[in-house]
Amino acid sequence: MDYLLCADDGTAYTYTPDKNIISESDGKYFFKDPDRKWPLVTSSNKKKDPKALKILLGLQCNFRCEYCSQTENIPATPIEPDIEGVIAMLDGKDWNPRKVEFWGGEPFLYWKELSILIPRLRAKYPKAGMSIITNGSLITQEKMAFLGENKVHVVISHDGPGQFQRTLDPLYNKEIMEIIKRMVSTRQYKENSLFNAVLTPRNYDPVAVVEHLHRRVHPDAVISFEGVASIHKRTEDEKDLHFNNETGMAMAGAIAKGIIEGKLEKTSFMGHLRFFIQSLSDHRPATSIASKCGMNTASNIAFDLQGNILFCHNTTEAIGHLNDPECRVDNSKMTPWMERPNCKDCLIQQLCRGGCMSIESEEAWKASCNNSYYYHLGIFMGAFSILTGKILKSTHRI
Fold this sequence. Notes:
Strand 8, helix 6 and strand 9 form a beta-alpha-beta unit. This protein has a seven-stranded parallel β-sheet. By secondary structure, the protein is an alpha/beta fold.
């Protein structure tokens, strides 16, 4: 499937998503064919040597965010952690991960477990990058000092002017605000994300989020965007999270404008932009692009504190166990983008990569797909302007 990309000056380009090639009206490639062979990305039912460990501490949380993807997965009875058992199982594996992530719920509710787990894993994986995403409400100076000593990067979930969708705003706590401002002054947080935001129909402008946090906290704060709100199973309850064409195009336009005007330079949008432009330059085919989270590949593994290998870090559903030497898993309930018919011919497949693989409801999937389309269209429009110096006015399937 090809697309005709029409610029504001009347110039037309052809884009082929599955081959990731843009050509001009005379058929000449925008980027020279690098004649490179790309590996085929496939699902794996074994986790032999994962590069990213996602450790689910539990799903308990002191917030009730409107768009939380974990709400329906919180178990009535939390598991009894077996930290020593998990560490023993990890000791039996010759893994050398690049990343170790600690997930909730709200991770700081599991401080007892973290205080044991983090030093042990830091000693085991001295070169791995470690991180925690927290809502920020339970931060203390003692906890931040402990995490700093163990080189654990902390990212705070905050939606700027849309924080009302997250229950509370920890920035109104003077003690927490002072701690966060001290974090920004360090080299680590001048170069890496401090805040993580989600866009919704009532908070769709990323520049407004950036300006809000820079004004309230510090102009050097680096902000990442987790993406756009997904719709899971509660479609009736989540209708406020559905983008229509008006709000969707407003978000896409705001993202593109922010990229073009340089107002999103210190955000994760730049990483997405660089990845996409580099992929265009390399003519990277869609068959070499993994699904959004990569949980169906051998490179990523999520597990809880009993050693259960999980579908993903947002659920307690087990698909294997660490005590299996080969860490075999059941991927049958995962639906990667390659298996979703609408994804194969989509304009923004290389940016979106199919969204969440755990969405089962057709209605919820369509709504999530719609949200994701507008979000990634904004990045696509920004990339088009950077590459051509023109404004993308319309796209048409041909």
